Structures are given as C-alpha cells and as structure tokens.
Amino acid sequence: MMVSLYFLMPMKFTEFNFSTELNDALDSMGFVDATPIQEQAIPIIMDGHDLIACAQTGTGKTGAFLLPVLQTIWESDDRDSVNALVIVPTRELAIQIDQQVEAMSYFLGISSIAVYGGGDKEDWEKQRKALSTGADIVIATPGRLIAHMQLGYVKMKKVKQLILDEADRMLDMGFLGDIMSIISNISEKRQNLLFSATMPTNIRTLSSKILVNPKSISLSISKPAAGVLQGAYLINDVDKSKLIVDLLKDKRDKYKSVIVFSSTKKNVSNIVGALKSAKIDAEGISSDLDQKQREKVLLSFRNRKTQIIVATDILSRGIDITDINLVINFDVPNDAEDYVHRIGRTARANTTGVALTLINKYDIKKFKDIEAMIEASVQKIPLPEGYAEGPDFNSKVNYSRGRGGNSRGGNRKGGHKNRNYKGKRSGGKKGGSGSKPK
C-alpha cells in the first residue's frame, strides 16, 4: 500500500538533482511539484536520450525541456557558442520561452535570445550579435533563423540539444523544409527533443528522420483539461456579437481575464467595436498589429490592465497567461485540435475555467466532429429571452458555405443560395447532458 501511495504523490523539483542555483530559481518562482509530463520527461532528457513527447497545452511541457537543458548547460565547460536551439512556430511562443529561460536561469548566468521576424533594425542587430557571439540558448522561428544563417555568422556547429516545440503546428504551417534546412547546418552529434500536442503521421515521419532511438511519452492527447466547464449556444450569426456583449456586461466582476477567439481579423475588429459601444473595455490582437503593438496588448492583458482580449488563433497556442477564467469561441474553429488549444487557455495548472462556443448553422458539423474527437457531449445552453431561435443541432440538413457555381457547398440548380442539402444524417453525439455554466 505504501508503494501505491508513493506513486500518487507528485514528484518535487528538489528530487531531480538540479543544481542549487536552479533550485533557488524554482523556489523563488513558487514551483514545488512537477507536472506529469515534467516528471516523466526530465529524467529521460537528463540521461541524454532523444525524446518524442505528446502532451496537450497547459501541461507544463515547456518546463519539461527547459529545466534539464538549463542543468546541462550549467554543467558544461564549453560555452563559446550556441548550446541549445529551440525551434518554435510563432514569435509569441519564442518570446514566452525566452522569458521563462530568463526567470529559471536567474541564478545561473545562462544567456538566451528570442529570434523572430517582424521587428525593426534594432531587433535584427540584437539577434545578429547574440547569434554571432554564441548565446547559450536560442529560441527561434524557422524563417528568421534561416535569414540569419544565410549571412554566415551564426555559430551553430556545436549545438548539443535541439528542441522542436509545437512540432505539429510547425508542420501545419508548412515549415518542414525550413526545419530540415536548419538541421542540416547544425551539429550532427546532439540530443533531439520533439514536443507536440498531437501525434499525426507526419510527426512520426519527422521524428524518424531526426531522432535516434528515442524514448516516447504520450499524455492525454486531444482532450480538454478536466477543469474546463464547456458550454455552447446554437445561435444565428446576426446575434453573436449581441450575445457576447450580454454575456460580459453583467459578469465582469466574476471573470478576471477573458479571451474571445475569432477565426477572422475582420470579426476581431467587429467584436471589439461592439464591446466598446456597450462601454465594455476590450482590446483586439491579430496579424494586423505589428510586433510591438501585439506585445503591448499582451503585456496589458498579463498585468490585468486589460480584462478582455479578442484574438485570432495567434493566441490559441504558446501563450502562457495564468488565471484566464473565460474563453469564448465566437465561431467554431475549422480544426478540432484548435478547439482544444483555444479552450486550453483557461483551467491551466489544475485551475478551473469556463469555455463557451457560439455555433451557427454552418458550424454544426464541425462541432459534432469536435465532440467526437474529445469523446464528450458539450452542454447546449438555451439562448436568453429576446433572441431568435437558433439552428437545430440535430437537424438532418448539413449546411455549408458556398462560393457559387457547381463547387462543393455552392449553389445547385434550383437550390438555395449558400446551402447544400446532403440528405443524410451527420455524425456526432447528441448534446444536452451536464450542468450549465454559471
């Protein structure tokens, strides 16, 4: 019985044999217990094995690779070039990891640089200097790193650890060629770590090309965190902005931080406009903003100066902001995996949160696919009084947006515009069970 009880207890960071300096940094940050991915991955990495790890967002996988990397660099006698290279899909994730390196290595004197596009001449020069003199850890987006490497001053021949973070996202964004180009120009004798939220076939193929006899970890693939209370409204497009205003205007005291996700930049602007018209302060963030503007909005959100942020999927991965209480999906994401990442912004680190999704008639099939993937039915919440009745979730009609002509989802001869009657039942489970988010 004592052995069984031991395995139920979370592992302490002090049990990993980190240096006193690294433990001091963790203690100053309030880190005591390791998460499951950290508990499994850290010993493997510290033993020098290659690793392929699959864990959902919010499980602490950044710390799972950063901590042993920091320990390895601390013990190294060779610090005159880049020791560890972390490749990530977005500038936001690069900045976030760089900030975590700075915090975790406070007492170690380990240097790092985030290398990403979108900055000015000063940013480029800062990156060039760090890459040419040899920062201990480089966290980079593929395109910007290649731009520097092509100029010949990047010192990468002594890289001892290569980490691919959010690998599935990078492949979805078309970075495979860039990744392989970077790998061909760094040291062949290195440790390789691949972290991914999902494990599709292309990730397995990539791992077979770059990893050597890897250990494997897989935790809770494509499932929302247990602390997320999910709900959905079946609603017509014209009522969506009004519902978001109604949901937020009377409950701002209940939620410390709120993210509203939209798939389009246009809707981000429209939602922010609707909220501000109702005297609800909100800020928008999308690729329309330059990097400094985005960082300013995110800093204000992190510091609780901005309570509500409206964003495209630029924030669905790689942004670690604690105490987000509410996530609203203005629309259903096209990819079921993106749904998990969106609502994964709340209920992080064993906390709780609410995730609400607005479903129009065109999104019913996509949301049924999400329910099938997460193996759960999401509670369908009745609309407040005064709203027109929304679409029927269990309708046999499968609507899809069309572009006209005879293309799939377009007009049929004698049919209705932007509607295609399939004449068959869509898959998925019926909704309706569970408790209503309050």
Characterize the structure shown.
With 438 residues, this protein is α/β, with parallel strands linked by helices. The chain folds into two domains: 9-219, P-loop containing nucleotide triphosphate hydrolases (Rossmann fold), CATH 3.40.50.300; 228-380, Rossmann fold. The chain is built from 15 helices and 14 strands. The chain has helices at 2-8, 20-28, 36-46, 61-75, 91-104, 121-133, 142-149, 167-172, 176-183, 201-210, 240-249, 265-277, 291-302, 336-343, 364-374, and strands at residues 51-55, 84-87, 112-115, 137-140, 161-164, 191-196, 215-219, 228-234, 258-261, 283-285, 308-311, 326-329, 353-359, 379-380. The strands form two sheets. A seven-stranded parallel sheet has the order 3-4-2-5-6-1-7, sandwiched between helices. Strands 10-11-9-12-13-8-14 form a seven-stranded parallel sheet, sandwiched between helices. α7 (142-149) crosses α9 (176-183), α11 crosses α12 and α14 packs across α15. It is globular, with a radius of gyration of 23 Å. The two termini are 40 Å apart.
Give the key terms.
disordered N terminus; globular; Rossmann fold; 438 residues
Radius of gyration: 23 Å
General form: globular
Can you say what the CATH homologous superfamily of the largest domain is?
P-loop containing nucleotide triphosphate hydrolases
Largest sheet: 7 strands, parallel
Structural category? alpha/beta
Helix content: 25-40%
* SS strand fraction: 5-15%
The number of helical runs is 15
Topology pattern, helix = H, strand = E: HHHEHEHEHEHEHHEHEEHEHEHEEHEHE
Low-confidence stretches: 1-8, 402-438
Distance from N terminus to C terminus (CA atoms, Å) equals 40 Å
- CATH top level of the largest domain is Alpha Beta
What is the CATH-assigned architecture of the largest domain?
A: 3-Layer(aba) Sandwich
CATH topology (level 3) name of the largest domain? Rossmann fold
Number of strands: 14
Mean of all residue-level pLDDT scores: 82
Tally of distinct domains? 2
Q: How do the strands line up in the largest sheet?
A: 3-4-2-5-6-1-7
